[in-house]
Design goal:
mainly beta, six-stranded antiparallel beta barrel
């Protein structure tokens, strides 16, 4: 087990479901889906700091195991504090090589409250 694995916390994908509201519209509900582990840290690169100074939300780096690759616009919840995040990149773009001993994927995400 690596230090990276030790830093991983329990997370769960949030799935969106829309039901008719009886008046021609719909009601959106969120429910917990598949669970996975991830490390979530604030991106402190110069580019991220410039973006944040210009009013863009704080950017997070999220690392998952290769068997839990996240897709753009996926929403997930960190279980220990209930914080929710929306993925802003594609987990298939940054993965460790097949020959690497660590089998990981990385995405960027922003913290976001779930819309109702």
């Amino acid at each position: 087990m690596s230090l990276l694995d030790d830093a991983m916390v329990d997370c769960v994908l949030m799935e969106k479901k829309r039901e008719p509201d009886g008046a021609g519209g719909f009601i959106t509900e969120w429910y917990e889906g598949a669970s996975f582990k991830a490390t979530i840290s604030v991106n402190t690169t110069t580019e991220a700091q410039i973006a944040e100074a210009q009013g863009i939300k704080r950017i997070y780096s999220v690392i998952t195991n290769k068997n839990a690759i996240l897709d753009p616009q996926d929403v997930f919840k960190r279980l220990y504090d209930g914080a929710t995040f929306r993925v802003t990149s594609d987990g298939h773009d940054v993965v460790t090589p097949k020959t690497a001993s660590l089998k990981k994927s990385q995405v960027t995400a922003k913290r976001e409250e779930l819309p109702i």
